[in-house]
Amino acid sequence: MIKLLSRLTGSSLGKKFVMGLTGLALVGFLFVHLAGNTLLFADRDGRAFDRYEQTLTGNPLLPLAELALAGLFALHIVFALRVTAQNRAAKGQNYQTSAKAKTRSLGSTSMIYTGLVVLGFLVIHILDFRVGKLLREDEGYSMAGMVREKLSTPLWAGIYVLGVVALAVHLSHGVRSAFQSLGVSHPNLNPWLVRAGWAVAVLVGVGFLSFPIYFLAQGASR
Ligand code: HEM
């Protein structure tokens, strides 16, 4: 098992396989997170979202799920950095032909940059809410209230918009690339995988953008 893992992670293809698998699992998390967040729109005082958040917090399996999620993010990020470093080293040796480089889309060349912006956003986001709730001393805090308070200011709404736009651009290429890394590729299928990648990017982008926009508009009308 350990031998298989080290062979898998030692080769460039193996690293991409791990990135693809963890990337798709993270997309699954994004849809679950987005679905949960839509409860923020269920009522004006955030009761539906708070009930949902308290049910999650009270689940004894939550720490395990959070650990698995952190593991997915960590694997995806570490392998992305290693593949990028490896590609840069290969490029230095003229390993990559210029013709190949020219065919790379904006999405593929920007993956590492959009990924780093998303990582920065994620650190801020976890500090805001996940760590933020641990720092709350009042038992009866409202997570919906915390979200509303944060996202109703132009600066924070702007930071969230930037993070989500970077995420959408990342996914517009990442989903298609993940399937390719897993060996899912066929001339008839590939155009559909490209479309699927764009569909995921638009759904996730528009979905998550709706929260800062909604709370900013609410803050402005108060
Ligand atoms: C833009 C709108 C978003 C809103 C309003 C939002 C809201 C929240 C809230 C309220 C929590 C805390 C849940 C809790 O611990 O009780 C949370 C956690 C989290 N969010 Fe978001 N989120 C948004 C976007 C995102 C995006 C785009 C990502 C990924 C790139 C993300 C990843 C996470 C992660 C990893 C956690 C920690 C989960 C856990 O440990 O339980 N969120 N989010």
CATH homologous superfamily title: Fumarate reductase/succinate dehydrogenase, transmembrane subunit
Bound molecules: protoporphyrin IX containing FE
**Nearest-angstrom radius of gyration?**
20 Å
Query: Which H/E pattern describes the elements?
Result: HHHHHHHHHH
Count of structural domains = 1
CATH topology: 3 helical TM bundles of succinate and fumarate reductases
CATH class: Mainly Alpha
Q: What's the count of strands?
A: 0
Approximate helicity band: over 70%
Global geometry: globular
In the CATH hierarchy, the architecture is Up-down Bundle
Mean pLDDT rating: 90
Given helix and strand content, the structural type is: mainly alpha
Give the amount of beta strand, in percent.
under 5%
Number of helices: 10
What's the story with the biggest beta sheet? Answer: none
The low-confidence parts are: none
Question: Can you put this structure into words, describing what you see?
Answer:
This protein has helices spanning 2-10, 12-37, 47-57, 62-92, 98-103, 106-109, 111-135, 143-151, 154-181, 190-221. It has 222 residues and is an all-alpha fold. The protein has one domain (15-88, 109-221): 3 helical TM bundles of succinate and fumarate reductases (Up-down Bundle). The chain is globular, with a radius of gyration of 20 Å. The termini are far apart. The structure holds protoporphyrin IX containing FE.
Quick structural gist:
This protein is mainly alpha-helical and 222 residues long. It contains 10 helices and no strands.
